[in-house]
Amino acid sequence: MANTYTLISSATVGAVPATSIDFTSIPSIYTDLVLKVSARDTNAIYREIFLTINGSTANGTAKVLSGNGATASSYNATRVEGIGYTNNSTTTANTFTSVDFYIPNYAGSTNKSFSADGVGENNATTAYAELTASLWSQTAAITSISVVLGAASTFAQYSTAYLYGVKNA
Amino acid sequence: MPNPTRIEINCETGVETVIELTDAEVAELAYQAELAAEKKAEEEAQAEAAATAKAALLEKLGITADEAKLLLA
Q1: Whole-model pTM over 0.95
Q2: Looking at the predicted structure, is the pLDDT value of residue A89 above 80?
């Protein structure tokens, strides 16, 4: 059981949309990382929330269990993913998608696993909730994480990302 | 209208830097978005074609999707 939970850094998107939120020089003093993302896409098409690890978009895979209030499905992805359907300009105004990533042993020397749960909010029939298991098949310690949207889309104002370090998980 | 930014936070120093993308980076992003849209359209077309073929086969066999599932179980 974790006995510490420390905020490492956070960021909030300003008035100008952002293509990524990049956490660099992540210290290796923690056991695990937790990344909490609240995001809204400026565009009108549902896009994914991906993580780029140490500047690399390669060597990632994901298995996603998805539901939207009407249907349930599963799919695979080729990147480290948090959710496939981020709130965007078609969803209710001022609503955001929340995604929590858990990244155990991020500073270790084995391949890195990620679990994520993501939910959108929408005052409509359809709203997405997903559970994701991702793998980054690289043994390097994670020193940087970039939060990005699929198709190079942009985060809307007030989107946030908070990175926490967990010790003795 | 300003170009989109990227936000970089150095976790050792706590310094946050908001970097406006260059025109070249914006053009690259637009290209990537176009590629992604093409890929998505292709995937949707493939999925639609598969669904149409499946429906045609079920009709040819004279069974429902549930009955097909039962056969394959």
Answers
A1: no
A2: yes
Determine, for residues B29 and A19 on separate chains, whether the beta-carbon distance falls below 8 Å.
Answer: yes
Report the C-alpha gap between A36 and A98 in whole angstroms.
Answer: 7
List the domain range (segments joined by +) for residue B41. Answer: 5-72
- Supply the pLDDT for residue B39: 83
Show the CA angle centred on residue A89, arms to residues A156 and A40, nearest 5°: 35
Q: What number is the ipTM of this complex?
A: 0.92
Concatenating the DSSP letter of every residue in A151-163 gives GG--BPTT-EEEE
Cross-strand pairs, A37: A99, A161
Task: Select from A22, A46, A148 the residue whose CB has the most chain B CBs within 10 Å, as the one to mutate to test that interface.
Answer: A22
Distances (CA, A) of A60 to A21, A81, A85: 19, 9, 18
